[in-house]
Design brief:
The complex is a heterodimer of chains A (about 280) and B (about 170).
Chain A (H helix, E strand, L loop, with lengths): L1 E6 L9 H13 L2 E5 L14 H12 L6 E3 L2 H13 L3 H8 L11 E3 H9 L12 E4 L20 H8 L3 E2 L18 H17 L4 E4 L2 H9 L1 H8 L7 E3 H8 L17 H13 L1
Parallel strand pairs in A: 1-2, 1-3, 3-4, 5-6, 5-7, 7-8
Chain B lengths: L2 H12 L11 H5 L10 H9 L3 H6 L2 H4 L5 H5 L6 H14 L5 H16 L4 H11 L4 H13 L13 H11 L3
Helix pairs in contact in B: 1-7, 8-9, 8-11
The chains are: A alpha/beta (about 280), B mainly alpha (about 170).
Chain lengths: ~280, ~170
């Protein structure tokens, strides 16, 4: 059994619970043992302007294990990867190590997208999501600042994933426009405007659902969708699923294991379509 | 702080390559909140390089940056405009230039320093107390999340709080 250290991040305990639950269920189904990172702490998200301090906070987490560290949050992922790159500088590494309990000696960081891409490839899935039109929403930090999972300008890793699950990827022109999540509390108007355009663009592209890979993107696109409908006087009703929820459906896991009832816009009608088609075949 | 000292501090914090900016505007044209800004990101870098401290620090643009990093990916000079924004935020906070945005960052960092992790409920409550006009959308969000079982007061405890305090004390004084 493959062992991976799992860095859930703060959001997994509250607004991103369905991401955490579905990640654990999917890993179990794939025969991957997720070992929650011992004594993990906040990575600083986008709110620590002092870069050295931010790297220190990220590095502390990386010294808690010798295993590869997997995270589901694109902000955590970008911060951890940035720390790994910056800590190649020996001067900075010595300075950070002088305050850490355990010394940082290098680390491998991965996003749950990478874990899924590796383990779903060449795997026969019990349920094909055929006929589902899914638009992947990349957001920002899965691919930025670069040298990571895929091109920051023309990524295709999520379209490949949608295809792997048997669904049809739908191109939405705003798939990489920022959701505004990091400023949604002090700057609500600015953030909601972005989300409105992202959701409209997905709808116009003819998507049945949006697939996301970050809990903050999910909060903005799913939990805030009602507020956007009221503010802009539109009817959206666009289900927004985590990549682990969609993968879990294809792996034959049930709605409870994937916490589908926790999504604000219910994906259950979509799921019924998938099952109906199966029994109809 | 003199204007030249201000310029040199931002350069030290955000990288020497800032001096090579050709004002091409790739950063601003990649920015998702550019249309809401008073100074574009391009202009902000110019203000820094010209040592126009007061204008730069008063610019709302510093707080409209969502940290999406598209400017950083695209800059043909390898400048990290987001790092410039971070440096300006850091200077604003140090100099006590207060705003609703600065208060959000302060609350966020204080919570990491005292608890090691972020509790979204405590974060939202602390922010709403300082900025009462934000209370209504925060409550609406809270009700939505509560109905889905996604509100938790307790993000778990961190044992290594001494280490976190040391990180803040020793690395946070750049």
């Amino acid at each position: 059994m493959t062992e991976i250290a799992y860095y859930p991040g703060c959001v997994s305990k509250a607004t991103g619970r369905e991401y955490d639950i579905s990640t654990r269920s999917v890993a179990r189904a794939l025969g991957i043992e997720l070992i929650e990172l011992d004594d993990w702490s906040c990575c600083g998200a986008t709110h620590v302007p002092n870069e050295t301090l931010a790297i220190g906070l990220a590095a502390r987490n990386l010294t808690q294990t010798e295993l590869p560290v997997m995270t589901t949050c694109s902000i955590c992922y970008s911060n951890l990867r940035t720390a790994v790159r910056r800590l190649e500088d020996n001067g900075l590494r010595a300075r950070v190590n002088s305050v850490l309990e355990r010394k940082y000696k290098g680390a491998r960081v991965m996003h749950v997208v990478e874990m899924l891409s590796e383990s779903l490839r060449n795997r026969e899935l019990p349920i094909k999501l055929s006929g589902l039109r899914v638009t992947p929403y990349y957001g920002c930090l899965l691919t930025r600042p670069g040298n990571g999972i895929d091109s920051p300008e023309h990524p295709k890793v999520l379209e490949d994933m949608v295809r792997m699950l048997g669904a049809e990827p739908v191109e939405s022109p705003l798939k990489m426009l920022c959701c505004g999540g990091p400023i949604f509390m002090p700057r609500e108007d600015a953030a909601l405007e972005s989300v409105y355009h992202i959701l409209q663009s997905a709808k116009r592209a003819g998507a049945d659902a949006i697939m996301v890979v970050c809990p903050l993107c999910h909060l903005m696109l799913d939990a805030k969708q009602g507020a956007i409908e009221r503010r802009y006087g539109v009817d959206l009703g666009m289900p927004v699923l985590y990549i682990t929820q969609l993968a879990g459906i294809a792996l034959g896991l049930g709605p409870e294991e994937l916490a589908l009832e926790m999504n604000s816009i219910s994906p259950l009608p979509l799921l019924e379509r998938v099952y109906q088609r199966m029994t109809g075949d | 702080m003199s204007d030249a000292a201000f310029r040199e501090e931002v350069v030290r914090l955000a990288g020497d390559e800032i001096r090579t900016c050709i004002q091409c505007g790739t950063c601003s044209s990649s920015c998702s909140t550019a249309h809401l800004m008073d100074n574009s990101i391009r202009k902000l870098i110019r203000l820094v390089l010209e040592g126009r401290r007061r204008e730069a620090l008063a610019s709302e643009s510093i707080w409209l940056c969502t940290s999406c990093l598209l400017c950083t990916v695209r800059c043909p000079r390898g400048i990290r405009p987001k790092a410039v924004v971070s440096a300006l935020r850091q200077i604003c906070e140090r100099e006590g230039i207060s705003s609703r945005d600065a208060s959000f960052e302060r609350i966020f960092m204080d919570q990491i320093r005292s608890k090691g992790r972020i509790s979204e409920v405590l974060l939202s409550a602390a922010y709403a107390l300082r900025n009462p006009d934000a209370a209504v959308p925060i409550m609406e969000m809270g009700i939505e999340l509560l109905s889905r079982g996604k509100v938790s007061l307790d993000p778990g405890t961190v044992k290594g709080m001494d280490e976190i305090e040391r990180i803040f004390r020793e690395l946070g004084n750049d």
